[in-house]
Amino acid sequence: MISTFKITDSGIEKATQDVSNWIVLQKATKVELTEIVEKYELPKDIFVGGDDAEEINQYEKMNNDRLGELTILSLMNLSDNRELPIEKRLEPLILIFAKEMTLTFVGDNSDFLTSFLTRSAHKVTNKEQLCAYIIKRTYAHFLKELKTIKKIIDELDAAARTTTKNEALFRLADTQRDVVYLDNALQGQKETLNYLWEETNFAQQLGDENLVYNIRLRQAHAEERILIYRDLLETIGGLFSDMMSNHLNRLMKFLDSATLVVSIAALVAGIWGMNTGGLPGKETKNGFFFVMILAVVVSILTTIYLKRKDFTK
Q: Keywords assigned by UniProt (predicted)?
C-alpha cells in the first residue's frame, strides 16, 4: 500500500501523490515497490530484506538523477504485537530524504504509521522534524517493551526461588532470546544515530536542542536498561541452575540415607541367613521373629541418627 502525505507549516496532512512530499510504503506489493523504484530511479535492492530483523542500521548519502542528493537512514522499530516472535516484531524503517521529497518504507507487520500520525502529525512541519519524531517514536516502543520485560524478569526471579518447572525455564529462554534481539537492534541503532548526531549537521538543521536531548536521553535509557536486564537474566538463569542442583543434591542425599537404612536391615537378615552353625536362636521357633525385631530396631535407630544429623532432608 502506498500512502501519500504533505508536510505543511501546520503539520502532516493527507494528500494526493501529485502534491505530496512524503510517501509511505507499508505492506507494499512487489509491483508497488517496483513502481516507486523505477519512478524515482532508486537502487533496485534498496528495499530488499526490508522485513528482516537482521537488517543493518545505516546512514548513507548517494546521488540520484531524478531527486538529486539522497540521504538514506535505516532504523529499527518494534511492533506492539506481542503475539509475533521477536524477529517478526523487529522491523526496519527506511527513510529516504531528498530536497523536495521524503520516502519511508515500513515493515509489513507494522502499525507504526497509524501510531506516529496519531501522536506526532501536528508537530511535524519539515523533513528534519519528521526524522526526529520518527526516531523518538521508535525509542518509545523500545522502552515500552523493556518495561514489560522488567515485569517478566521480576516474575522469573520469584519463580526461580520456588520452582524449577519446565514452564518457567521455557519462559526464561524466550525472554533471553527477546533481550538478545533487542540488544543487537539497539547497539546497531546506537552507532548509526551517534554518527547522525555527531558527524552530520542534522542537529543544526533541526534547530531544536530540546528534541535532540529528549531523543538521546531515551536512547541512553534504552541502552542502559537492556544491559541491566541481560545481566539480570543471566543471574536468574544461574539461580535456576543452582536451585536444580540443590534439589538434586537433596534427592541424592535422601536416597543415600534410605539405602543405608535398608542395607543395615538387610545386613542383619543376611547374617542370620548364613548356613553355618552357632547362630543365636537357630534352634528356637521364635528365631525368625527375633531377627525381624532386631532388624526393625536397628533400622529405626539408624533413621533417628541420620535425622538428627540432617541426612534425611
A: Membrane, Transmembrane, Transmembrane helix
Residue 226 in contact with residue 176, Cβ under 8 Å?
no
SS3 state of residue 61: strand
Q: Are 222 and 142 in contact (CB under 8 A)?
A: yes
Q: Where are the domains of the chain?
A: 2-245, 246-308
Q: What is the pTM of this model?
A: 0.75
Model confidence pLDDT, tens digit, residues 21-74 = 888 888 777 888 888 888 877 877 777 655 554 556 788 888 877 878 888 888
Phi and psi (nearest 5°) for 16?
Answer: -75, 160
Cα 2 to Cα 63, 116, 121, 191, distances in angstroms:
24, 16, 18, 30
Report angle CA 131, 51, 7 to the nearest 5 degrees: 25
Domain 2-245: CATH architecture, name and number where available: 2-Layer Sandwich (3.30)
CATH architecture assignment, domain 246-308: Up-down Bundle (1.20)
DSSP code per residue over 108-162: TT--HHHHHHHHHGGG--SHHHHHHHHHHHHHHHHHHHHHHHHHHHHHHHHHHTT
